Amino acid sequence: VNESRTFPDDFLWGGAIAANQAEGAWNEDGKGVSIADVVRGGIISGVSDKEIDSDKYYPSHEAIDFYHKYKEDIALFKEMGFTLFRTSINWTRIFPNGDEKEPNEHGLEFYDNLFDELIKNGIEPMITISHYETPMHLVDAYGGWENRKLIDFFSRYCEVIFNRYKNKVKYWMTFNEVNNMHKIPFAAGACRIEDGPDKLQRVYQASHHMFVANAMAVKLGKEIMPENEVGCMLSLSAFYPNTCDPEDIFGAYQYRRRSLFFSDVMLRGKYPSYTDRILKEHNITIEKEEDDDALISENTCSFLAFSYYLTSTYKAGTPIFESTGGSMGYENPYLENSDFGWPIDPKGLRYVCNELYDRYEKPLFVVENGLGAKDTVSEDGKIHDDYRIEYVKKHLIEINEAIEDGCEILGYTYWGPIDIISAGSGQMQKRYGFIHVDKDDQGNGTLKRVKKDSFDWYKKVIASNGEEL
Ligand code: BG6
User: Known catalytic residues?
Assistant: First the structure.
């Protein structure tokens, strides 16, 4: 292990959240209903209510009230020394239903104010354009990304936000964890695709529409803000073969391709050669328009952003359908699990960085990594989260190793630097933050912010540009 741990001088340090998991204010200032606003058990669960029941608790409706408290929170991020902060623009603040012709000015103003506040504090905003918060109307009236019409709605949305924020936001990402289309099509693609014989046909068709939309966003980006970067974002927690049985090894390789397929298209600009066999074996026909392939090939993303939390293993005989992202395959006896059952594997992050840089030779951005844990407030009112410090430290050491290996890594945004609601369960008790928020799973609490021990530690890491871990 390299002891000196030099990170590049321009390495970007910060944290990442998503609008729907933090902002709250779900129906204020003209905001429409997003897919995250109709779920009570986490957007990833995909279980949504047809009508919002005002007697029930919906985690996104208030979340941690970042919408009203962002100044206080940004002051804390500044204190930690963030140079970058990743959040998403909630599509429904800009286009409440998704298919309007004109944007909602109040929503645009909110993000102007938010970005100005960040910039004023020396923090660059980084934006996810669509982070599991598609307008619900696009699901009800169009069927989400299964419908090609979404390409136009998304392009209009991109055009508006690129024009508006081109001088404030340099790094953009199109779809959060787009490879999760297989596993969680409601969150990732706003589609209600159940398991069934036509599932893969529908997933690949919807994904194609997203590839075209991604290319459109890159094209618009080049026209409207040529100095800025439009990247793609995938869930790329690693997957290993469970044993050295060649069947496990090749199976794991095939499985991983179900994820890398997405970055292959968006970074290399074409459907990879292994696609044909997948389509043939599953009777899938992707309907394309004449110019789709050219558009995709001429407009590839300039960087690859990804989330990394855990690793799992693949055993032969398991169907190879999904994405490897957060999949839970077979247990790895060499790893310990988090409080929430996620295997902790810092070395896997070095492995993934190398895997991705070898494949694409495009800059990488670690935009999500973190430990969701059951924190307790001690009698002294503090939160002693040395386990979180351990987790981040070990992962940063491996990022540094990957940089030494030759990978170009632009930055690190820790997931949930302030406690937010969980995408997986809607709970508050799965806490990632360096900052504690007083709120429980039923929505009770003062929303008061308190620094955890990890706060000062992360501050020291950033101040030393990663030398003091
Ligand atoms: C990623 C998502 O899948 O994992 C985030 O992009 C999410 O939105 C994060 O919050 C952690 O998952 P969870 O379920 O612990 O919130």
Answer: 368
**Bridge-partner residues for 87, per DSSP?**
127
pLDDT in tens, 121-169: 999 999 999 999 999 999 999 999 999 999 999 999 999 999 999 999 9
Mean pLDDT in the chain?
A: 96
Cβ–ligand 1 distance for 325 under 6 Å, the answer no
Distance 224 CA to ligand 1 centre (A): 31
First and final C-alpha spacing in the chain: 14
Residue 3 has pLDDT above 70, yes or no: no
Ligand 1 nearest atom to the CA of residue 326, by list position: 3
The position carrying tokens 């069934």 is 196
pLDDT band at 1 (very low <50, low <70, confident <90, very high): low
With a 6 Å cutoff on the Cβ, whether 397 touches ligand 1 is no
Instruction: Judge contact between 436 and 450, C-beta under 8 A.
Output: yes
Give the ipTM.
0.99
Token pair in block for residue 347: 């070395």
Q: 370-397: b or e for each residue (b if 16 or more CB lie within 10 Å)?
A: bbbbebeeeeeeebebeebbebbeebbb
Provide the whole-model pTM.
0.97
In DSSP notation, 402-469 reads: HHHHT--EEEEEEE-SB----TTT--SSSB--SEEE---TTS-S---EEE-HHHHHHHHHHHTTTS--
CA-closest residue to ligand 1 atom 10 = 423
CA distances from 414 to 69, 100, 463 (A): 20, 35, 16
Q: Determine the CATH number of domain 12-374+392-434+454-463.
A: 3.20.20.80
307 within ligand 1 shell (Cβ under 6 A): yes
- Residues 357 and 347: their CA atoms lie apart, in Å, by 16
For 375-389, how does the pLDDT look when each residue is reduced to its tens digit (9 = 90+)? 999 999 999 999 999
- pLDDT tens digits, residue range 414-424? 999 999 999 99
Domain ranges of the chain: 12-374+392-434+454-463
Kindly tell me if the per-residue pLDDT of 323 is higher than 90.
no
Please work out whether the CB of residue 175 comes within 6 Å of at least one atom of ligand 1.
Answer: no
What was the pLDDT predicted at 322?
78
43 CA distance to ligand 1 middle (Å): 9
Distance CA 303, CA 265 (A): 13
Residue 176 CB–ligand 1 contact under 6 Å: yes
Residue in the block written with tokens 């002051």? 75
